[in-house]
Amino acid sequence: MKILVCITHVPDTTSKIQFTTNNTKFDSTGVQFIIGPYDDYALARAVELRDQTGGTLTALNVGEAETEPTLRKALAIGADDAIRVNSFPKDSFFVAQQIAHFAKAGDFELILMGRESIDFNGGMVHGMVGEILGIPSFSPVMKLELEETTVKMAREIEGGKEHLEAKLPLIAGCQEPIAEWKIPNMRGIMSARTKPLVVVEPVSQETQAEASSYQLPPAKGSVKLVDKDQVSELVRLLKNEAKVL
Amino acid sequence: MSILVYVEQSAGKIKKTSLEAVSYGYALAAKTGEGEVIAVALGSLAADELAAIGEAGAAKVLHISDERLNAGVIQAHASAVAQAFESARASTLILAKSSLGDAVAARLAIKLQAALVSNVVELPRLEGGFVVKRSIYTGKAFADTTVTTAKKIIAIKKNAVVQKLDGAKAQVELFSVSISESDFASKITSTERATGEVLLPEADIVVSGGRGMKGPENWGMLVDLAKTLGAATGCSKPVSDIGWRPHHEHVGQTGVKVAPTLYIAIGISGAIQHLAGVNSSKCIVVINKDPEAPFFKAADYGIVGDAFEIVPQLTEALKAVY
Ligand SMILES: Cc1cc2nc3c(=O)[nH]c(=O)nc-3n(C[C@H](O)[C@H](O)[C@H](O)COP(=O)(O)OP(=O)(O)OC[C@H]3O[C@@H](n4cnc5c(N)ncnc54)[C@H](O)[C@@H]3O)c2cc1C
Ligand SMILES: Nc1ncnc2c1ncn2[C@@H]1O[C@H](COP(=O)(O)O)[C@@H](O)[C@H]1O
Question: Does A175 contact B141 at a Cβ distance shorter than 8 Å?
Fold first, then answer.
């Protein structure tokens, strides 16, 4: 079976977010980039399923040259080859079109993505790709098992989960506990250097909703501490001062 | 032209976040002068539930009563809502961000050739184009997003607008759609859902516990506190990883993002990944025995001390007020 996993190249979860050029550009000074945490779950499960079915696993990213170390990391974790669509990911629609095109060209039967990217948090690229390709898409998927061409999944819903059955081909936006994050080992890192990483140009430039400028939330004031022997004072403050009760 | 609002139900009850979406549609219509707000509600729903949609600001409700839509079958919902959108000659679709809403909205964006903007936190600005402010980097920043398509889909975050309660009774119309069998091809075989509890993503108050609670046997006091406040319960990631609490209660970067009026964090250190899930809360209270716990920097109110002593006292003090 041919599996595709789509990964984002995003700031580490501990990063301080800042902008430059009059708040129109992300400031990457001092920021470490990682595979998106949800994409990391998708990748981990994809590696397991590839090993189980004996198929191939391709990792894809829509991004500029600086995302290549992140794709190499995906190769080190276990992807067989990688595709980089050479463009800044302008908006979700733009990204979805690129993924849909290469997914179709490569005839992938199972496409795993993250539940959401942690930069733009849209949670929508999987659904868009599913609709473009005319195949089902599910998210957030917390369990995914393959039985021949049937896929058994658990999808998180508010306050619980639902169990689903669907047929390949399909797309799943993954989250924990679908698999444990995998850390690349030495052999993986060595072999990643020689695995193919193909750079392709975008198939369309169309966008619909690009970010034009950025803002940071207002700074938080300092905490008001209440003595541990005066718990009722906290209740009074919440009621009369913060007015949240 | 009209504004269509996709309203979700959970076990026969309209979701509160969906009613907020209706009120957002109402406020948007007032701002753009775009005409009627029409809601589309799917599956079996009682008359009083449909009426509540009117009170939140809809003039009309298109009720698609097909009971196969009681469950959140993503493709079938997307097909049904697309038909309602065309029939209502809507320009804009509003919905509340949710597990089902996100999945349905993404498919609709392609079906309707509409730009989709998610995590929207306020009404759009109309000077110099249609500009929507959305939360990005898991609440650490905002982006002004310029929408260039004629049709638009806006998925709002909780508290993007104040829910309207004084609207009129909506005119309810049964609306029939044709949904192909293939849209029902994926089967929901079973659903596990907490009943009788306040749902975490919808809650106005959240009581959340971390590893400082020491074990699942100590959650009783948090549940008591939550009950007293009519709150939902949440937890940190390690707590759900170890299995002390169910996964759907896990709050943070890789879990549920909440935006309650009040978030009470008990025995949670306040790691940046946890804060990412709560930074949209209006007021944060932290109870932690370590005065250096990073959570205090993100808090509005705090008590330094042992949760096992403070929480029962807090519940008592609240009972005197409620
Ligand atoms: C990529 C990534 C994603 C992550 N996503 C998430 C996420 O979504 N959500 C999340 O929560 N974490 C997430 N984490 C984990 C996060 O970094 C922290 O490890 C986690 O939040 C810590 O949980 P905790 O505060 O419950 O436990 P601890 O850090 O162990 O803190 C326990 C706290 O309890 C206090 N305490 C102990 N005893 C008492 C007592 N008797 N009374 C009062 N206070 C007491 C201690 O002082 C301490 O501050 C993520 C990590 C990574 C790397
Ligand atoms: N630039 C990108 N390159 C590759 N995959 C992406 C990109 N952006 C988003 N995705 C995939 O789509 C998922 C959902 O992203 P989003 O809709 O932006 O939250 C991510 O978890 C990735 O799997």
Answer: no
- DSSP-derived 3-state class of residue B312: helix
pLDDT tens-digit readout, B256-279: 999 999 999 999 999 999 999 999
Distance from CA of B173 to the nearest CA of A (A): 28
Parallel, antiparallel, or unpaired: how do β-strands B152-156 and B171-174 relate?
unpaired
Q: How far apart are CA B283 and CA B260, in angstroms?
A: 8
Q: What is the pLDDT of residues A3-50, one digit of tens each?
A: 999 999 999 999 999 999 999 999 999 999 999 999 999 999 999 999
Residue type, B278: V
Ligand 1 atom closest to the CA of B238, numbered from 1: 23
Length in residues, chain A: 245
- Using most ligand atoms within 8 A of CB, pick from A6, A61, A94 the residue to mutate for ligand 2: A6
CB B88 within 8 A of CB B62: yes
> Token pair of B123, please?
């009404």
Decide if B79 contacts B177 (C-beta within 8 A). yes
Round to whole Å and give the CA distance between A199 and A206: 20
In angstroms, rounded to a whole number, what is the distance separating the alpha carbons of residues A240 and A223? 17
pTM of the shown model? 0.94
The CB of B176 under 6 Å from ligand 1? The reply is no
Atom of ligand 2 nearest to the CA of A5: 23
Rounded to the nearest 10 degrees, what angle do helices A92-105 and B99-112 cross at? 80
* Residue A61 banded pLDDT, cuts 50, 70, 90: very high
- Give the separation between CA B317 and CA A170, rounded to whole angstroms: 53
| CA-only gyration radius of chain A, Å | 21
